[in-house]
Amino acid sequence: MKHVEIDHQFVREKIHAGLLQVNFIPSEQQIADVLTKPITPKMFSAFRHALGVLSLNELKTQKSIS
């Protein structure tokens, strides 16, 4: 828990100094949700693509194009 408190203070100081801006990100754009929550297949595909993770079929297609 100590590390979380230190990280929180670090981020807080940077925000107050104007060196860091924290923006709201809607749930539909939270890529980390693919690892932590049940999501729809469409969102899973979009997040997987955003992370650069390919399916086996996509990998085979890419190799045949190269």
Q: What does this protein look like?
A:
The mean pLDDT is 86. The longest helix is centred in the N-terminal third of the chain and has 15 residues, at 2-16. The protein has 66 residues and is mainly alpha-helical. It is built from four helices and no strands. This is Copia protein.
The overall number of domains is: 1
Question: What portion of the residues fall into strands of 2 or more residues?
Answer: under 5%
- Uncertain spans: none
Rg result: 18 Å
Average pLDDT confidence is 86
Briefly, what is this?
The protein is an all-alpha fold and 66 residues long. It contains four helices and no strands.
Quick tags:
single chain, 66 residues, mainly alpha, 4 helices, 61% helix, 0% strand, elongated, Copia protein
Helices and strands, with pairings:
Elements: H1 2-16, H2 33-36, H3 41-51, H4 56-65
